[in-house]
Every structure is written in C-alpha cells, then in structure tokens.
Design brief:
GO terms for molecular function: ADP binding. InterPro entries: Ankyrin_rpt, Ankyrin_rpt-contain_sf, NB-ARC, P-loop_NTPase. It is a single chain. The protein has 888 residues and is mainly alpha-helical. It is 52% helix and 6% strand. The chain is built from 44 helices and eleven strands. Helix 1 packs across helix 3, helix 36 (711-728) crosses helix 37 and helix 38 (763-773) runs antiparallel to helix 40. The radius of gyration is 33 Å and the shape is globular.
C-alpha cells in the first residue's frame, strides 16, 4: 500500500512519470510470488488509484511499452492533495525526498524546474539546503536548470518574490555579488534590475538593502521608469514604502524630476495609479510643485487628467483633491485631441465591456466636475461633446430607437411632456394657477432645449462620428472585391475524414442554434490530440466551404499564442488597406476585423487554429454581436465547453485514422507504387498506430529513399533505433511526454539520416535549417535564417559557386524546405516567401534528438550569436523560446 499512497502524494510535483518511488517498486517486485517488471508494478498502482477516481488512466497500446499507459490527475484533486499536505506539514518533507533523490531526467529544466521552483521556493529550508550550499548550487547547474551567468539572478528573483531578506542577503554575500552585478538587468524581466523587481514585488526590506548596497536609483528600468516611478505604482498605505522613497530622495533629490519614455514625472505616475500618499510625498519634495503640477506627458495629459481617466479602475477622489490643492487645472483641455475632463471621465475603462456596469467610483468624479463648473458642452476637434464620444465609443447609438412602456423614444418623450393647454379640459384649465402656468412654460422651454440637444446628439453621433471613425471599412466598392490573405492548403496526400468534414460543415452553416445569447453565430470546435490532423482537416473544411460556395472568404488565425492572434489580425487589416494600427490592443484589432467582415456582407469563415481553451479565446470572439455573415471554427487539443448561458457550440472529436484511410494515405504518398505489398503497408500502418503525422513521416521517408528501400527494412531500422535509444538511456521511455513519442523519435531520426545520405545539393541547407527549427516557435522566418545563420550562409555561397545557373539564396532555401516537406517534416507552401511552419511535435522531437547527441549547445550558440533579433517581427517568439525554453 505504501507505493499507492506515495504515488498519490507525489503526483502534484511530477509531470508525467514517477522516478522517486523506484525503491518501493523494486521491494514489491522482489516480495511478489511472481516477480514483476517495475513498469507492471507501477501500472498496477496507477490502476488501483483510478478506482477511487483520484487519477485518470489512458491505455496507449504498444506505443509506450515501458508503462503502457498515461496517468493524469485532475487539477482540483491536485490542489486538494497539496492543501492536505500543507495542513499536515508534510509538503517540505515530500519535496526534500524528491529533490534529494538526484535522479533527474535528461530533459533540461524538466523535473528540476517543476519540483524546485514551483513549490520548493516556498520553503526556506529547501532553498538553503539545495541552492545556497555551493555544492548543491553547482549540482543544479550541472542538471541544467540554469547556467552560472543567468541562474544566479533567477535565484535572487525567486528569493525576492517568496523569501525574506535574510535568505537574500546570505545568498548575495556567499556568492560575493558586487554592485555592478546587482544593478544589471535581470534578463528575463527585460530591463528591470533587482531593485525594480523588489519594489514591484512589494518586498521593501530587500529594496532598502539594495539601496544601501549603493545601487544607483538613476538606472532606468522598463519604459525608462526610475525607481520613483516604480514606487508610484504601489497602491498601498505602507509606512516602509514612504520610508524607502524618503531614503532615496534624501540622497538623490533630482530624481523627482526624471521622466519616463512616455514623458511622465514620478508624481504623474503616482496620480495615474491612485496612490495619494506617494503623490503627496513626491509633490512635497519638489522645490516648486505648482510649477510642475500641470506638466503634460507625450499624449498631452496632465496628472489630473491621468487620474480622472482611471477613475473606473481605482478610487481617485483623494488623488484628485490632492492635485487640485496643488493648483491642478481641472478646466484643462488636451491640446492633442481637445478633450476636457468630461471626455476623460466618461471614456470606456480598459477591459470594461459593459458601460452600464454598476460602479459608483465615477459618480463622485462626475459630481466633482459639476461642482467645479467644468464645461460639459465643450467640443473636441471634431465638434463633439463628451456625450457624443461616450455614446459612440460604447456602441450606444441604438439608444435613440429604444422605446419606453408607452412606446416613446427619447426624442418623443419630451415632446409628449409638453402638454398643450388646449388638450386640457375646462375644469383642468380653471384649476391651473398662474404659478402652475409659469412652471409649465419654464418646463416647455427646458424640454425644447432637451429636444434640440438630443437631435444634435443623434445627428452627430450617428451620421457624422460613426462615418468618420469607420472610413477604413465604409468603402464597399473596394472592400467587397478584396479577399483576405490566402491560407495554407491541406497536404496533397490528405485522405479520408469525409463524414467528419461533412458534419462540421453542416454545423458551421446552421444558424438555428445560436440566435440568442452571447454567441449569435455558428461556433464549432474540432478537438483531438496533437498529431491527429486537426489543422489539416480544418484546411480541408475551409477548402470545401469555398468550393461549394458556402463561404466567400476565409480568415485563418494561429491562436496558439496571443501574439500570434494580434500579428495575424494586424496583417489582415493592413492587407485590406487599414493603416496606423501600431499600439492597438489585440481586442481592438479583432473588433476592427469583425467590423470589416460585417461591412463586406459576404459569408466568412474565421478559423482559430490550435487555441488552448475558451477562457483564452473568449475576448477575441464577437460576443453579443449580430454577425449574420460569419461562422467560427476552433481547433484545440481539449474539448471546448462554454459557460452556462453563453450559447451552444458544436464539438467534433478527431480520432485516429480508420484502417482503410491509413492505408490510402500510405498508398497515396508512395504514388500507388506496386513495389510495396499490401501486407507491408498493413505492418507499417500497425506500427504507426494510425496517427496521421507519424504515418506521413514514415511514408514520406520510404518514398524519398526509393523502391530499393523496402517497408520491411524501414521497420527494422525503426526497431533498431528504439532499442539503441533505450540502451543508451533506459529512462528514456519513462520520460516520453505523449503516446507516440518513441516511434516519432525513431521516424525523425531515420528521416534525418536519409537526408544526410542524400546526394541532393540542397540537403545540407535542409539539415541545418531543420536543426534550427527546433528552437523557434512553429513559424520559422526565412530572412533571419538567410541573413543571420553562418552555416546556412556558407552553404548557400558554396552552392552558388558550384551551380551553372545561379539561384537567389531565398530560392535555394525554398528548395531545401521543399526537400524537407517530402518527409512531412515541415509544411511547404510554394507561394510563401517569408516563413515555413513546423509541427510542434516534430519541433519537440528535433530538440530531443539534439540533446541526446549533445549538439544542442553548439546549435543554440550559433543561433544566439547571429546578432540582433529585433528587426524580425516573427523572431520575437523565437527569441523567447531560445532564451527561456532551452538556455536554462
């Protein structure tokens, strides 16, 4: 029973496979009447736990032979286990046992990252034992969690966030870290150094210690902020915050006049974040605060306007009163857009989707504006008052058509209230006094003013403002004819899935389900494990929808990462002629795209490929919008479920290929050659598990090698490759992260070997390009590879010298990529001149191969040494993967 309890206890800290319970497994195996393999003992333990529904098991047949199953623990069960262990004071003991076993997996940053930093950083004793002792610290470096250069700073940052000053100072003193090191950028936190990190984490003891170590407060952090700007963002009334500010300003009084990159002084930042105590302190420490109180940032805003515009997010009344007492001009007009305080107070709050959400904070600000007689009729550069702007920016123009219980609109109601005297009876007329008559006349005058104002408001808001704001999408003569960016086509050997495709298309074209609720458009989810062909199926669905005239256009968005959504949407808008998109948020961009689709009136299918979950994509969906010409298809690993009341979604699971579909895929890839027998193809299909991506690589490799290379020989090489990997490192099978990684590893390894043996002159470029693909996101940019990677540049120059008909380097690279696509290692598109896509499973396998061959460091060194990444937009995500995904 010990092994069962122990497995459950450690599930929280391990990703997939348990290594620290080997001792218990061996004991049970030895004590059994019939000795069992260690894998069988563990399998029995997992099945025993599953009877309690504490974990979920999934049998994986012959493809994970060491264990034969995957085990998952629900995150609610996981969280509960940890609460139990914390309550019983057992967490530190369990973690200590896990860390001290020193049986770390080969994959860098795997167990060590999860065990030590997800949980052990909460325990000072573990940090002391396994990080602060020099031997253990070097052991951590040895096992790949961090390097001598970057790891120390990562350790310090975790100490700042989770531990006390004593631990931090002991680490600084033991490692003899000087002021220059402590002052330098903290790397993964961009330009912020440790002092900034301590302030932003609220750890004032560490911040004070760093100041006493003579770290210069004039070193600017992210966005050019000084440490006083950082202090100004802390919305807490803590004495130690003011104490730290006093310690800094008393030595460096000129720091209060430093501006950040947006032109804000520190007191302006404190005003914007609603920090009255810090604001008072900073203003008191300026020689002549009144001379600076109405300074503007680069956007033309004063500190008072910054505070007013954030009144929906934080209580700002006290901050505003402080600023007014120092002489802030509440009647100030922004010279950039001619907005006054009313415009700023009523503008939509960032992230606020409902303008009528109950929030009393703005009420006090509006009352203050009334009390100070701020001109509510003031017009901006477009001639609109704040109310015009408020109605348009919150899409409230339909309010003019709303009727009350008597069927009256806001325009008709005041007309009705002007009761003419001749509509009264004689008795009612006789009862009207002179005072009543005067009151009625005054009421009519006021109602006339209201009617005139509403008329102006309606005319301006609907007929002028909207037309002016949407000029980029109100050009039907141009937009109607301009298609969206082209999308990739499915693999030429794509086969089968016919019933699934028909069912999805039917769901996408059905509008009966989602006529009400937040989702008012057909929404469909295609889900299944990685490598099962979801993207290929979605591409085939899009292709069929266009061919059958069900949709006139397709918008394809890679939704795996949020920056991918923003980038693709911006590209689509720029392609349609919409400019000046810099600085727009992803939500604003996607809404511009939806406005554009609605204006085109053509039926459009929007595909969000590889999204993670509804909560991650929700903000990018056209919720509560009537979009009659749009349907949305989501592809994901896990099934998407909608919150109650949102509407309905059609969900379709992508499973393994049927046996006949798998055989047809092989036959098509092999050009229906008669050199391969039906039995051989059946064996190949069986070995692949009918997983599309594995089968495609298998068949592609065999087709590339030619008829002399039989399927039987390929299968022998697969088995030999698996045995070779297992013999070098018996734990490899235990560390597999998905069902078919073992077979996938062998397939990619053989494909690389065939490329090396190939006489094709572009094979060397193909290999070096493929090696680098493992460290980018799934999109690998051509320009970066061609201009920055020395090995590719050298091979291109050599081929150029040897070729009788010289080609441009980009054409050479495209031919090399086409060579890779024959193996199904990358997705090749002939008309794509900027990048190539690699499946994330293939990308992960490339990384594993290079780790096993101990070549990863050299490849990374070449990529990192290439130069500046910043000029390549698509390489930003690559840089993130390079530095945070592999260097550690």
């Amino acid at each position: 029973m010990g092994v069962f309890r122990y497995l459950l206890s450690t599930c929280l800290y391990l990703r997939t496979y348990v290594t620290t319970i080997r001792r218990d497994i061996e004991k049970i195996s030895k004590d059994s009447l019939l000795p069992l393999e260690a894998a069988q003992v563990l399998e029995n333990a997992i099945e025993f736990l599953s009877r309690f529904s504490l974990i979920t098991i999934r049998h994986v047949g012959n493809y994970s032979r060491k264990i034969g199953m995957d085990a998952e623990i629900h995150r609610l069960v996981q969280s509960t286990i940890r609460l139990i262990q914390v309550d019983k004071n057992r967490e530190q003991k369990i973690l200590d046992d896990l860390i001290s076993c020193q049986d770390y997996p080969e994959s860098l940053g795997g167990l060590t990252y999860v065990v030590v930093w997800s949980h052990a950083a909460n325990h000072e004793g573990l940090i002391r034992n396994y990080v602060m002792e020099k031997g253990s610290f070097r052991n951590m470096v040895h096992f790949g969690f961090f390097t001598e250069k970057t790891g120390i700073k990562v350790t310090l940052i975790f100490c700042i966030e989770r531990l006390n000053l004593e631990v931090f100072t002991e680490l600084v003193d033991e490692l003899v870290l000087d002021v220059n090191y402590l002052s330098s950028s903290s790397g993964i936190y961009q330009s912020n150094n440790l002092l900034f990190k301590a302030i932003l984490s609220g750890n004032m003891d560490v911040a004070k210690y760093l100041v006493e170590k003579n770290i210069s407060p004039f070193i600017n952090g992210k966005y050019g902020k000084s440490v006083l700007h950082a202090i100004g963002t802390i919305w807490e009334e803590r004495e130690e915050i003011i104490s730290l500010a006093f310690q800094i300003v008393s030595v460096h009084p000129k720091l209060v006049y430093e501006k950040n990159t947006t032109g804000e002084l520190a007191f302006m930042t404190a005003a914007k974040y609603g920090c009255p105590n810090i604001l008072n302190f900073l203003l008191n420490n300026m020689e002549d605060a009144k001379a600076y109180i109405n300074c503007t940032d680069k956007g033309g805003c004063t500190a008072l306007m910054l505070a007013i515009q954030n009144c929906k997010q934080r209580p700002m009344l006290e901050v505003i009163e402080v600023l007014i007492n120092y002489g802030a001009n509440i009647h100030y007009v922004n010279t950039n857009n001619l907005w006054n305080a009313w415009h700023f107070a009523t503008r939509p709050a960032f992230g606020c989707r409902n303008p009528f959400k109950i929030d009393f904070r703005p009420y006090f600000i509006l009352t203050l504006l009334v009390n100070h007689d701020v001109d509510f009729k003031f017009s901006d550069e477009n001639g609109d008052t704040f109310l015009h702007e408020f109605l348009v920016s919150n899409n409230l123009c339909e309010i003019f058509a709303c009727q009350n219980g008597d069927g009256l609109t806001v325009v008709q109601l005041p007309e009705k209230l002007k009761i003419p005297e001749n509509d009264c009876s004689e008795e009612e007329k006789s009862s009207i006094s002179s005072d009543d008559e005067a009151y009625h006349k005054a009421l009519v005058l006021k109602l006339n003013v209201v009617i005139e104002f509403i008329g102006r408001l309606k005319e301006s808001a609907l007929c002028q403002k909207i037309e002016r704001k949407n000029t980029n999408i109100q050009q039907p003569t141009i937009i109607e004819r301009k298609a969206f960016l082209p999308i990739a086509k499915p693999n030429e050997n794509f086969t089968g899935r016919n019933q699934l495709i028909d069912d999805v298309v039917k769901s996408l074209t059905s509008r009966s389900k989602n006529s009400k609720g937040e989702i008012r458009f057909p929404l469909v989810n295609l889900y299944g494990p990685d490598g099962y062909g979801k993207t290929q199926i979605a591409q085939r669905i899009a292709e069929q929808c266009i061919q059958d005239d069900l949709f006139s256009d397709i918008v394809w968005i890679d939704a795996e990462k949020e920056f991918g959504i923003r980038h693709r949407v911006a590209m689509e808008l720029e392609h349609q002629g919409i400019r000046n998109l810099q600085g727009n948020s992803g939500i604003l961009l996607i809404n511009k795209l939806y406005d554009l689709i609605v204006s085109k009136t053509l039926a459009t299918l929007v595909v969000f490929d590889n999204m993670e979950g509804f909560e991650n994509i929700q903000m990018y969906l056209p919720l509560n919008r009537n979009v009659d010409n749009m349907a949305i298809l989501l592809t994901s690993v896990n099934e998407v479920t909608l919150p109650l009341g949102h509407g309905e979604i059609g969900t379709f699971q992508v499973d393994l290929l049927e046996d006949d579909e798998a055989k047809e895929l092989v036959a098509s890839t092999l050009n229906h050659s008669t050199d391969y027998t039906e039995n051989e193809i059946s064996f190949l299909v069986s070995e692949s598990g009918r997983v599309p991506i594995i089968l495609s690589i298998m068949a592609g490799t065999i087709a590339f090698a030619g008829s002399a290379y039989s399927i039987t020989k390929f299968l022998h090489e697969i088995e030999a490759e698996k045995q070779s990997r297992h013999s070098k490192n018996p734990s490899t099978q235990e560390n597999l992260n998905f069902k078919y990684q073992e077979i996938m590893y062998a397939c990619v390894k053989i494909a690389i070997r065939k490329l090396k043996e190939s006489p094709n002159k572009y094979a060397s470029i193909a290999l070096k390009f493929f090696e680098g693909c493992g460290y980018f996101n799934n999109i690998c940019p051509f320009d970066f590879i061609l201009k920055k990677v020395p090995a590719i540049i050298q091979d291109s120059e050599r081929i150029l010298e040897e070729s009788p008909s010289p080609l441009e380097p980009k054409q050479m690279l495209k031919r090399a990529i086409k060579l890779l696509s024959k193996f199904s290692l990358v997705n090749y598109e002939a008309d794509n001149d900027s990048s190539v896509e690699i499946h994330r499973l293939v990308k992960n396998i490339v990384g594993l191969i290079q780790q096993d061959e101990q070549r990863e460091r050299d490849i990374l060194d070449e990529l990192i040494g290439c130069g500046d990444f910043s000029e390549y937009f698509d390489v930003w995500n690559a840089e993130m993967y390079l530095f945070f995904g592999h260097i550690r």
